[in-house]
Specification:
The protein is of the alpha/beta class and about 250 residues long. About 30% of the residues lie in helices and about 20% in strands. The protein is built from 6 helices and 8 strands; from the N terminus they run βαβαβββαβαβαβα. Helix 1 crosses helix 6. It is globular, with a radius of gyration of 28 Å.
């Protein structure tokens, strides 16, 4: 992923260090109104790029979710993506992309997933079914992900209930968060990075074990006719038993 070159500091946040040569990309996905834009805003070290537009009267009924406090009063929505940045160290930077939640913008997800290291699936436990599409697309692309339950003050759900409702594999991390809080959002991203590191370490161990098993298998292979040095002496196929010192 190309790293933009910025040499001056602006009022929007610190400039990208000239020593940065490693860019990592993470996407935040989920249903409409689960807090993706809020999370990018809370954790980004720069003023995020937002593509929010006012919800028009024509789309008010489509973008409203009946019966849930707060969402009916939502007056803007992301129509492309949110973008934020976090400098990890002098050489590495993390780019955050928040995906739009409405179904009519899901076609943009395919491009956002390109080059993605991993993903956060942000969910509202009051409407877990809104997260099914995000989980399905990530699994289709083979993109590692964790699930973060944003706190909207809804009824309590046990971890096992949430895992069952989302059909999560046992090894997929499931955490709680408040997308408005910077430290809470950072914890979500740290959890994802640790999970990605764990997966990479496991792959490295599996590859090393496979190579070791392959080497042992080749070493234990029974020689076939013509393979071993003691089958023929190279003189017209004469049997090696006729070359002994006491023969003839």
């Amino acid at each position: 992923m190309a790293v933009p070159s910025l040499t001056q500091r602006s009022s929007d946040g610190p400039a990208l260090a000239s020593t940065v040569n490693n860019a990592l990309k993470i996407v935040i996905v989920g249903g409409f109104g689960v807090g993706k834009t809020t999370m990018v805003r809370s954790v980004s070290e720069i003023r995020p790029l937002n593509t929010e537009e006012t919800i028009s009267r024509a789309s008010a009924d489509i973008d409203a979710i009946a019966g849930l406090d707060g969402l009916r009063r939502k007056n803007s929505t992301t129509v492309a993506f949110d973008f934020g940045r976090i400098s990890l160290d002098e050489k590495s930077v993390l780019y955050l992309f928040g995906a739009p939640g409405q179904e009519r913008f899901w076609f943009l997800w395919e491009r956002l997933f390109s080059g993605t290291l991993g993903a956060v699936v942000l969910v509202d436990t009051r409407r877990l079914s809104d997260s099914w599409y995000a989980l399905d697309r990530l699994e289709h692309h083979g993109t590692p992900f964790i699930v973060a339950c944003n706190d909207f003050g809804g009824p309590f759900h046990a971890v096992d209930q949430i895992r069952a409702a989302l059909a999560l594999a046992p090894d997929v991390p499931l955490v709680e968060c408040d997308a408005r809080d910077r430290s809470s959002s950072k914890y979500v991203l740290i959890t994802l990075i640790e999970y990605l590191y764990e997966l990479a370490s496991k792959r490295a161990v599996d590859q090393a074990r496979a190579q070791e098993d392959g080497a042992q298998e080749n070493g234990d292979r029974v020689p076939e006719d013509g393979d071993g040095p003691d089958r023929h002496d190279g003189r017209g196929g004469q049997d090696e038993r006729g070359d002994g010192p006491g023969d003839g």
